Every structure is written in C-alpha cells, then in structure tokens.
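cache lookup: miss for this entity combination. No prior model stored, computing from scratch. Input as submitted by user K.M.:
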Amino acid sequence: MSAEIIGAWIAVFLTFAIFSYLYKDNPFYKIAEHIFVGVSAGYWASMFFWTQIQPNLFGRLWPSSEYNDSGFWYGLYDLLGTVTSSAVFPAGGIDKGHGMHLIYLIPFALGIMMLLSVHSKMTWFARWGIAYTVGMAAGLRAYGFLNSNVIGQIKGSAVKFSGDMPFFAMIGDSYFNSLILIVGTISGLLYFYFSREHVGLLGKVSRLGIYFLMISFGASFGFAVMGRISLLVGRFTRLIDYARVEYNYASIWMFVIMVIVLAIWAFKSKEGKEASA
Amino acid sequence: MNDKKFWGISGAILVLFAIYWVAGYPFFKPERIVMFFAILLVSGTIMLYMRKAVRGEEIYLRTIPGLKAVEEAVGRSTEMGKPVLYVPGIMDMDQVETVAGVIVLGHVAKMTARYETTMNVPVSRAIVMKAARESCRESYLLEGRPDLFHDDMVHYLTDDQFAYAAGVNGIMLREKPAACLYMGKFYAESLLLAETGNSIGAIQIAGTASPSQIPFFVTACDYTLIGEEFFAASAYLSQEPQLIGGVKGQDMVKILILGTIVLATLLRYLFDMGWISWNVLNFLTIQ
C-alpha cells in the first residue's frame, strides 16, 4: 500500500471524524480534535523557532559573516552550540544573510523574561514583554489607522455631486449612489455616538445608520457563506476522488465503518444512561 | 498631573514648535501636514475630555444592551452552576481588539470572582495567555478572592486557527458553559464558535471590530458589540473617569469627522464646478 493511499485513508478518516460533530460529540470527533490541536501546537512551535527565532534572532546576533572564534561573543556561541544543538548553532556562525545587529538583544531578553515567568516568583517578568508588544503596536498602528480609517474615510466620503453622470446606476458613479454613500456614512457614524441618548433626530438618524449597517452585514454574510460553500464543495470533491478504486474505495469504506461504530456507541451510551438512571 | 503642569507643558511644546517652525522646520514633510493636524486634533480632543472627566465633570454615556447583558450572563452561569467561557479572539496582543478583549476579560473575571463562578479562557497565543492570566489574577486579587484563581483558568490550545476552533468547540460540548463570551479579533472561526455555543443553549455575547465577522455573531449570538461599542466596553464596565472621558473625546472626534466629510464634499463640488482652484482630494491624500 503506497503512502498516497495511506494518506488518503487518514484524510478521509479525519474529514468524516470532524463532520461527525454534526451528529454530536463522539469519540471520532474527540480523536480528530485532539490530533488537530496537538499536532498544530507542535507544528507552530517548531515553525516559529525555525522560521523566526533561529534565522531572524540568532542569525542576527551571531551571523557567520562576522565569525571570530577568539572573541568572547562567538566563544559564547560555540559554547551554546556544544551544550545545545549544532543544528541551532552551527559551527562558524549562522548564515542567513544577516549582518550583526546587537539591538536584537532586546527582543532576546524580552523572550527570556517571558520564559522565566514559568517560575511563580518571576511571573512579573512577563509584563515587560507584554507592555513592549502592546505599546509598540499601539504606536505603530496609530498612524496607519488614522491614515486609512480617518483621513482615507473622509476622502472616500467626499463624493462627487457634479458633472456628467446618471441619476441612478447599479455600478459606478451616479447621484443616487453618492447620496447613499454619504447618508450611510453619516448615519452609521452617528449610531456610534455614545454620549447622548438616541432619541429625537439623533435617534432617527442612528436608526437609519443601523439599517445601513445591517444591510452591509447581510451582504457580507451572504458573500462569506458562498465562500464556505465553495470550501465544502472542494472537500466533497476530494472525498469523491478518494471513493475511487485507486484508493480502495476509502471514502465509502470509512463512511460505512464510522456509521456502524457510531451506531454501536450511541446504543451503548443509551444503555449505560438507562442503567445508571 | 494638575492643570497648571498640563498647560505649562503644553505651552512649552507649542513654543518649541513655533521656534522649530521659524527655523525652517527641518525634517518636516509639508506634504503630510494633514496627518500632522489630524494627530494633533484627535489626540488633543481625547486628552481634553479625559481631563474634564478626571476633574469630575459629569459625562453621560447611553446604555449598550450587550454590556448590561454581561453581568446577567455571569449571573445565569452562577445560578446554573456552570462555567463561563471567554474567548479573547485568535490574534496576538499587537491587535487593538485583543487588547480590548483582555481588558474586558479583567472585568468579567471580577464578576466571576464575586459570584464564585468558574471561568474558562482558552487562548491561541502565548503572549495573550500571559496577559490574560495577569488580568484575571489581578481581578481575583482585587475582589479579595485570590484563592479562587488558578493558572489553568487561562490555558493555551494552539496557534492554528481551525485547530483552536475545534478545541474550543470540544470544550463547549463537554463543559456546556452557560455563558459564552467572544471578545477580540476573529476570522472564519467566528461562526463555528457561535453556532456551537448556540447549539448548547448558552447565552452568547460577542464583541469584535472585524467587519466581516460581525454578521456571523449578529446571527448566532444573543448580543453583539459592534466595532466601537466593543472598544467603549471597558469604559462602561469600569466606570473609570479617564476611560469615560476617552469615550466622550472619541465622540467629539466623530462629530469633527462628520463636519469634515460635509465640508470636503462641498469643497469637492466647488472644485468640480470650477469655482475654486484648490483640490481638497489632493490635500487629503497622504504622500
């Protein structure tokens, strides 16, 4: 049996196991869920280490381009290579195309501080890393948000109300579309005005705003559901492929076996419940 | 900082800026002047209202049903003797929604500590786990119930989006929480989580600013905090003057934005008609 066929059987099993959740929580779903969570946690930990920490952090602290075996810094590196792994700290420095950037000692120290928090008395160390992440992101994104969500929005809302354009058009510029855009933006924004009760004129405008929001949510919902259906179709296409003779009718066999096992399990659980009652 | 200090520092900054401007404003990019004014105006307005609130000025905030329901949801869990499930989204602490989610978690943790209700917080990022743990620990301490707090209350599942959704769904099916709160940044897993919560009969409250996921939460949850409502949540829940002042300041910024939109539309119309030569759209384009 080739690896491809084994892979197909595993894929079919895991797909049906996840689908079995539609019936109710059952051993197949539990198996698939635990494999999925466990494997993905391990996979991402490994990915982060080999795509970020090793090349981008260690690779900038001990680059091969500046290797010097007589100095303290690379002496420490060689020591780390000896006591840990030569795959992480290969002889002669790390060659990932970076120069030496000792500023990366700061994220290195913050990372160590996060790790130290496993000890209950050193938990507070982790706050430094969290504070750095939140503060850095707030500062970095403030400019981008102000640019796209405020100034960009104002620019986009300053719509055209002149020139040669039709009164109504489904797509493109029209007086009607411009009006809808500006009324929708203003009323939508007023819905998020919190420091006054939504009564009177403000109440009416904010109600109009929530209608605009709900219409846009409805359109977005329909669009997303279409995307999900296409994913489901893709999965079914694979299951149909795996139901062919080349894969030893994997989908059919697996479906039959799982239905039988689930039926036995459901019957036994019912019996167990009745006995305990 | 008292008023005297505040205005003193503000005045000093203004004088320094005037000197810098007279000296020929080196390194200043005049093509980004709109951004400069926007930063000044937005931060200045918010700071002004924060100071007003701290000084004791009464600020009214209208009721948001979703936020009132948070306490009801925790109360329901207490009555039923079932846990509260809190999902702070799937992104890291560099996302403002995750930060807001962790802040709201702190308030929810205070309620669970007060009512002695179990809480379960599965997370998908290591830094979020640490931040959420710290937040919960502090809330339990403030409520005088550090004995009820344990580290496993906030636990890591996986970084993978759908594996995380599968794990949280499993928790929901097995623990059957009476209240499910989804507050943070969500993507395609939002409907998977909300539908499962719905199927177990839990009261569900969601809060997110992800426009593409709000429809799913609106459909499947009992209450949804849409965008800005979610960011205002911590101010509502804590009733801290500084935060309430911040919400009022943001409201004023919205009024300024509305005014600017109307003015920009008018200026564009005048430019398009050829009555003025100044193009507002060029001015609003950040180079």
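stored under new cache key. Residues 112-158 of chain A form one domain.
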